[in-house]
Amino acid sequence: MVEVDAVVVGAGPNGLTAAVTLARAGLTVRVYEAAAEVGGGTRTEELTLPGFRHDVCSAVHPLGAGSPAFRALSLERHGVTWVEPAIPLAHPFPDGSAAILARSVAETAAVLGHDGATYRRLIGPFLGRWNDLAPDVLRAQLAGLPKDPLLLARFGVRAAAPAALLARLFRGEHARGLLAGLAAHAMAPLGSPATGGVALLFALAAHEVGWPFPAGGSQALADALAEHLRSLGGRIETGRPVRDLGELPSARAYLLDVMPEHLAALAGPRLPDRFAERLRRYRHGPAAFKIDYALSGPVPWTAEPCTRAGTVHLGPSFTEIGTALRAAYDGAAPETPFLIVAQPTLFDPSRAPAGSHVLWVYGHVPLGWTGDLTGAIERQIERFAPGFGDLVLARAVAGPATVEARNPDNVGGDIAGGACDHLRLLFRPTLARVPYATPDPGIYLCSSATPPGPGVHGMCGHHAALVALRRVFRLSGEEVRRRCGGSRTPDTGRAS
After folding, report:
1. What would the pLDDT profile of 355-377 be if each residue is shown by its tens digit?
2. Is 222 in the same domain as 75?
3. 3-class DSSP state for residue 168?
4. In whole angstroms, what is the distance from residue 287 CA to residue 313 CA?
5. Are the C-beta atoms of residues 1 and 27 closer than 8 Å to each other?
6. CA-based Rg of the chain, rounded to a whole angstrom?
7. Hey, is 290 helix, strand or coil?
8. 35 and 128, same domain (yes or no)
9. Could you tell me if residue 379 is inside a domain?
10. What tens digit of pLDDT does each residue of 202-247 get?
11. Where in the sequence is the domain holding 49, given as residue range(s)?
12. Domain count along the chain
């Protein structure tokens, strides 16, 4: 007997979004999470000292604020308040100057000098079109026709290019460095295809929706999704690790917010050997080496715009950033790491004791690396903020092993859900028209190892749930739209 319509394994943002999407369609849903609380990559904890609340993995959410799935769920009604920094991103240089990614294109272009006009031409065709473009970009590219084929094609011509190619459009190091820092979020060499698209998408998001973070920390996103699910009658069981699907209640559909190799282990003989072997060989990319700081005051940045930015990229030149990314990709720790820094307490003082701050920093290292990057990270921060070390009250250092221990989906410290080089960002975990499905008609993958890949946006879970609604529960596209509030269902071609 079927005990429940659908079971979701993993209560990260994708698993919870999948569960909410299914529950909105009227299904009975249960979620099983191994950790003591929901969130996965969107948890907030006191990692250093009492009263200092740090984001365990994700911190800033441009794709979350602009996610079609999250917008359809109206998470603000369930407690999410977006905090908007004065400047989404600052990119400082050793001379005390800085490039910025502002909400205004004009302000961003003005700082880029003679490259400002080129930046306008690059980003201009897509301004004001986020609601048309995002649904087509944040999906499996082979799963049916896009909403706006011409717009997507125009974006795709630019987006398919490596960041190294797009950088040739610019003459100055400020624009080239800004572009490289944006592309580095893909955790792939700057010569990899589609890294230019990552840079363009993040730049466009800054102008269209900002680079905000949830008040109180990323945990607020997970808590809102969980509350929404419970309001629809869904159940969540935390502290429930799953080692085999046979341990779970019988259900018509199982959606797994896990890595492909974990899916193969959980499904066991339910998947054909050949398909399971492809999942077990899934390739992971470089790892993150992360440090969370409790500080006695704000970071003493030399470049003034950094004092007003929610996110700061540290690695001034295109060459320096490219060298750091290439080193991690090739299996060596970078001597001068490229750093992504978030400073939420400049805009949300509730996350630290009065007058104190938290700082979130990570650099790229090889997958599974066992060394210590702390010294190199702090030298890089001091390069742009002399005296930083005098403010440190405590630090929580997380190398790849600790990153994985906090969330088993971060295999070897890989926080991107798999390698993003050589078009692996677009076609994952295997080349398939509907990559969420498996040869077993009741088992689906809904993690960041499926399109559109890493980021806190819930779109992987959303798309997987839509496919299950069509294939397993036989709902028509119109019925799905009626029950789920206007969602567009992808083409549900057979799994390969």
Report:
1. 999 999 999 999 999 999 999 99
2. yes
3. helix
4. 17
5. no
6. 21
7. strand
8. no
9. no
10. 999 999 999 999 999 999 999 999 999 999 999 999 999 999 999 9
11. 4-64+68-79+215-283+414-484
12. 2
